[in-house]
Amino acid sequence: MDQSGNGRARVMVVTPTDPRCKTNGGNQRTAHLCDAFSRHADVLVLSLTSDQVRTPELDPEGYLLGPIHLSKRYAERMPVRVLRRACEVGLQFSKDRSQRAAVAKAVEQHQPDLLLYRYLNQAVVSHPPGLDMPCIIDIDDRMSDKYQQMANTAGNALMRGSLRRTSRYLRAREDAALKISDCELFADAKSPESATRFYFPNIPIFNPAEPSPLPEKFALGFIGNLLYRPNIDGVRWFLDEVWPQVLQAVPDCQILLAGSGADQFSGRPGVVSLGFIDSVASLYDQASVILVPIRYGGGSNIKLPEAMAHGRPCVATSRAVDAFGTDVEGCEGLLSCSDAQQMAAAVIRLASDREQLQQAAAAAKQVADAKFSTERLAQVAGKALGIAWPTATAAPATVE
C-alpha cells in the first residue's frame, strides 16, 4: 500500500495515551514506541483521548485525535463492585463502536500499511471488524496479572472463557507482539508459532550523561503516582513492615515520597511528602537510594531503570526486578528482596557503608546506559516491522 512515496512503511499507532505528554510511564512508553518505529517508517499517531471528537481530526501538531473509550467516559457512574466484576470476567474487552469507526475512518483517509496498537485491550476494543491489515500489539495491559491468573485457574469457567476469548483474538489479529517484560507469562496464552514476540523494555525518558553527586545525608526516595493502587500498596507495605526496622538501625533516616497522593503518608515518622514534582531530578538530587516496593501490577516499573539512569541504586521487590530479566542480572546497583527482612537489611547496609553506596550507584548507571537505550528500542522496532510487513525498506538500526 505504501503511500509515503519514499519506499518506507506507513505505520499508524493507535493509542489511548498521548506521546506528547510524558508525565507518566504509560505516556513515556508510547513516546518511545513512536520514536523507535519512526527510525524505520513514517509514523502517524491516532490518539484516542478526546471526550468531544467523534471522528478523527488532525490537530495543529499533525496528530489525529479520536474518541476516548466508552468505559472511561462512563466509569464514574458505575459502582466500584460492578467495575471490579467486569474486570474479573474480561468485560473490559467490550467493543467501542465510536473507536472502531474512528480507526476505520483513519485507515481510509491515511492509508497506513500497518497498525501498531498500544495495549492489547486497545486492539480488542477498537479494531474494525473485517479489516485485514498487519498488526503489531504492544502487550502492556494493567490487567496482565489477571490474565495470567485466568490461565492457571481451572475451576472458574468465566475466567477460562475470558482467556480463551483473548487468545482467539490474538491468533486472529496479531502478526508480531512487543512484550513489556522479558519474563511476561501472558505470552504463553498463544502458541509460539502464531506470532513473533519481541522484548521492548521500558526505558527512562530522561537519561543524564552525568548523574548528580550522591547527597551527603543518606535518604530514601520513591517516585510514582500514589493514587495508583499498586504504588499505594507497595509504599504502605514498606512503611508498615520495613520502615520500623530501618529506623531502629538508622534513626535519622528519611524517606522522600514524590508523586500525586503522597500526602496520605505524611504523618508517618521520617516521611517527607514532596507531592507532585515538575522535574524528577529534584528527587534524585536529594535521595541516595530509590525504593521500588511494588508487589503486584502488570508489566515492569519505569521507576527502576529511571533511577539507575540517574545513578541511584535501587532496593526493590523481587517482583519488580524479575520483570527486567537478564538485563539487570548480577547488577550491584540493584538489590532484589523477597521479603521485608531482606529489604530492611539492604537499606541498612547501604546507609551504613558510603563506599558500597557509591559503588552501587556507579554500577546502576553503567547497566542503565548499556541496556536501556533508544538505539536498542529502534533495533527491536526494525525487527518487528520486518516480520509484520516484510516488504518494508527499513534500514537496520544498530545498538552501540
Automatic annotation (TrEMBL):
Endoplasmic reticulum is among the record's keywords: no
PANTHER family in UniProt: GLYCOSYL TRANSFERASE GROUP 1 (PTHR12526:SF600), GLYCOSYLTRANSFERASE (PTHR12526)
Organism: Aeoliella mucimassa
Name this polypeptide is given: Putative glycosyl transferase
One Pfam family per UniProt: Glyco_trans_1_4
Gene3D superfamilies linked to this entry: Glycogen Phosphorylase B
GO MF annotation, one: glycosyltransferase activity
UniProt keyword list: Transferase
SUPFAM superfamilies the UniProt entry points to: UDP-Glycosyltransferase/glycogen phosphorylase
